[in-house]
User: What shape does this take?
Amino acid sequence: MTSLVLVALGWAWQQRQLALGWKTSATELQSMVEQIDCIIIGLSVDYRIQEWNASATKRYGWQRHDVRGKNYLELGVPSSIQEDFVARCESVLTTKQSAQFQQLLSTPNGGEEFIHWKINPWLNLQGETLGLLLNGYAEAPNLHWENKMITLRDIISQFPVAIAIFDSQMRYLAYSKVWLSQYNLQGQSLFGKSHYEVFPDLKLEWKMAHQKALQGETVSQLEDTWERENGSKIQQSWVIQPWYKTPHEIGGLILATTPISELIKERESALQSAQSKSHFLAQMSHEIRTPMNGVLGMVELLLETQLTPQQRDYTSTIYCSAQHLLTVINEILDFSKLEAGETRLAIANFDLDTCIETVIDLLTVKAEEKNLDLIVLIDSYLPRQLKGDALRLHQILLNLISNAIKFTEIGTIILRVTSLAENADKVKINFSVKDTGIGIHPDLHPQIFKPFSSASSVTNRQYSGTGLGLSICQHLVEMMEGEIGFESCLGEGSTFWFNVELIKAESSISPIIPELEPIKILVVDSHPLVRESVCSFASTWGIRVDEVEDGNTALTAWKTALEQGEPYQVILIDLPLLNREGVKLVRALHDCDQNYPTKLILMSKLNQRDRAEQVVNLGDDTYLLKPVAPLRFLQTLVLTLNLKSPAILTRLHQWQQQTHRIESFQNRDQRFNLQSHALKILLAEDDPINQKVILSQLKLLGYDADLVNNGQSVLERLTYKDYDLILMDCQMPILDGYEATQRLRQHPDMIHRQPIVIALTASAMSSDRERCIEVGMDDYVSKPVELNALGKVLQRWSYSRLSAPNSNPSFLHSVNSSHLSVTFAPETSTLESNPMSGLTIAESPVNLERLNRLLKGNLQLQHRLLHLFLEQAQSRIQNLHQAIMNQDFTTIRQQAHALKGSSSSAAVLEIPEIAKQLEDLAKEQNLEGATELVEKLQQCLSRVQVFVQEKITFQST
Assistant: This one.
C-alpha cells in the first residue's frame, strides 16, 4: 500500500502542471512528501542527493540542507552492499524499470532497522531521466526476525547434514530433516522446545561446551561417543559455534553433528589394510637389505687382509657407514615389521663394552660439534660377556643418545649402565641416557612414544628426523621383555631409560686382566664424571686407580706415591689442564729417575687431536681420544706400556674383531707426509659419518677444515671468521645449503669477502645443478665424495683463490670435477713465458693474464677449459633463442646467469656483461632488445672460437 502511495505521489509531482483534475501546488505536494512515514530520497544520475524528506532525516540523522548535493554512495550506502546497489541503480537508469533491495540500517539512537527499498526512475515531463527516486519503509524488528527465521527454517530444513540452531536459552529455532532422522525424531515439531528436554540424558561435557559457545567460543570434537540411557551408543563428531544477532550480541548457537560409526569401521578396515602393507614391506626388507649386506661382507673380507693402520681405519669407517645406512633403512622397514608382528630377536653372544663403544664412535663428532661432553659410566662389577640381540641394543642406544645430542645445546650427555639384579644365569641391566637439553613439555609426555604424534612432528620440523625412533625403541624394549620410560623437566633436560634382562654368556671371560693388576694409574680431569668413567673402566680390569682434579694436585700425588715406593705407571691428564701446573707435572715426569718411569697419556677431544699430537711428539707419550671408551682406553694402555703377552693380545684381538678396528701398535707414527695448504676451509655437513670421511679426506690431501652441521651455523661462523672456501652440503636441517648460499651472496657485510662455495650434492640431476647455479654456488662435488674428485676441485679453486685472495669468486657454474679429467699440478710454463700474454684486450676476446693466473700458465688446461666453455656456451645461446620465442623468462634468466658465470670463470671478455644485461631483462620480464643481445653473444662467442682455434690450439701444440 505504501509503495502505491509513493508511486502516485511521484506521478502527481511530475504531472502537477497538467491540471488533469488534481490542482495540487508544489508546496502542497512537498508537504505531503514530508509528512508520509516513508523514506523518500531523490538522486541525480551521478548519485548526488536532490530530495530528502523528514522520514529520511529521522532514519539517518541529517537535515535536508546538510546532505543536499552530497554523494549518496559515500553517505548512506555501506561498502559491503555498494556494488550490488550501484548495479541495481544502473539497471533502473537503463531499462527505466523499478528495482528493489534490502538494507540493515543503523539509526542515530544506536538501534537498527531493516529497510525495504524500491528504486524508481525519476523522469521529467518529456520522459527524460533526471535521476533516481528511492523510497523505503522500515519493517518492525520482531517482524523482521520472524520473517528471517521463517526463511531460515525453510533453508535449514533442506540441509543434507544434521544441524540445529538454538537461541540463547537452548530452544530450537531451526533444524534439518536429517537432524530428525538421525535422532529418531521424525514427525515431531521441536520449535521452541528446550534441547535439554528433548535429550534429557545429554553428557555433562556437552552442556559445558554449549556454555562456552554462548560465550563466543567455537568448540568441536572429531570423535566422541554418547552412551544413552536406553543402552544405545552413538559415535559422532560435532562442532558448536555461536551465531550473532548483531555484531556484538550473541543470539544463540549452531550445532552440527556427523555420525562416524561407519567411518570408524572404515578406519579399522584401513588400519588392517595398512598392516597388510606393513607385512608386505616387512617381506621386502630382505630384498632391500641384500645389497647392503653384500657391501658389509666385502668390507669384512677386506679387513682380514694386510692393511696399514690408516687404511684399516678408513675401511672400518666404511664398515660403520654401511652399518649406519643399514640402520636408517631398517628404521623404516623395522617399523613396518613391528607393526606386522614379523620382527624377531637374533640372540647371540656379544661383548657389552664393544656394543657401547661402537655407538660412542658414531656419535662423537656430532657431540663435539655442539661442544657437548659425552660420558660413559659402566658399573665395574657388571658382567661384560652377555647373550642377546646386540644389534637391537645398539639401535636403541644409538637412537636415545642421538636424540639427547639433538635436543641439547650446552652441557653433558651421560650414558650410565648399572646392574639392577643378578643371578647365576642372568643379569637385569638399566641403561639411562641423561641430557641437559630443552626437556619435554608435560602436555607431550603421554604421546612421546607414539609414532607420528604431535610431539614428534613439532620437534622433527625444527630438528629433523623420521619421528619413528622412540616408537621403535619402545617396540624393541618390549620385545626384550623390558621396560622403557623417561623423566623430563622443561628447560632442564631429560633422562630416557630402559631395563632389559640379558643372559650371561656360557664362556664368560673374567673382566680382570692379570697383566694389568700390578699397574697403578692416576686420572687427572676437572670433570668428576670423566674421572669416574675412567676409574670404572680401570678397576674393571683390576688396575689400581686414583683420581685428582688439577695438575698441581696431580704433581703432589705423584711425588707422594714415588716417595712411598708405589709409583704410578701411567698418568692420564686432560689436555686443557696442561697449564702452568700441568707443565710442571710433565717436566717432572721427563726428569724423573728412569728406574721408576711414569708414562703420560693425554686425554683430548677429537678437535684437539692436532695439539695432542704436537705435545706427545715432544716425548715418548701417547694420547687418548674422548669420550673415553673401554676398548680404545685398553688399546692405549697396551701401547703405552708396551704390553705384549699372548693372553692380553689375544683378548684385544677378539674384542677388536667385533668392531673391525684392529690397530698396528708398532707403526703408530706412520703418517702421510703431505704439504699443508693455506686455504681456509669450512665444511658444512650434518651427517657424522660424512663429516668423518670428508675431514679425513681433507687431512689426507693436506688441508685443514672447520666443521659445522647446518647452514645457519655457516652464516654465524662467517660473522667472525673469513674462509676461502666452503664445502656446503645441500640438504641439512634448520637451514639447507641452498638457502644458506643465497643469504650469503646477498649479505651486505660479505660483499667484499665472498668465499667460494662448493656444493656437496647426492644428486647428479640437471635440475639440482641448475639450482646450485641459481643460488650462487661456484662448483659441486657429487656424493659419495671420491678423494680424487675432491682433490681436483680443491686444487683448482686453491690456485684461483690464493692467487687473488681479495677478489670475489669466479662462479664456475658449468665446470665441475666430472668434466675435467686432467692433472691440476702446475707445469713449468708461466705467465712470463707464455707468448700470448702480450696480446691486448682489443686483439684477444679472452683475458689471458687472468686465465694464466687462474691455471698457472698451463696451456693444455687452458685449451680444454675454453673448449668446454665454447661447447656449453653454444648450447646455452640456442636455449636462449628458444626461451625468447616462448617468452620463458625463467629459462632466460637461468641460462643468462649460467653463461655469465661460466664465461667469467673462463676469463672470457664482453660475454659476462652482455649476459648480465639479458639476465636483468628477464628479471624485469622485459624482452625489448633481448634478441639483439643474444645476437651479440653469438658474435662474441664466434670471436672466442676463432681465437681458440688460431692461437690457443697453435700454442698448445
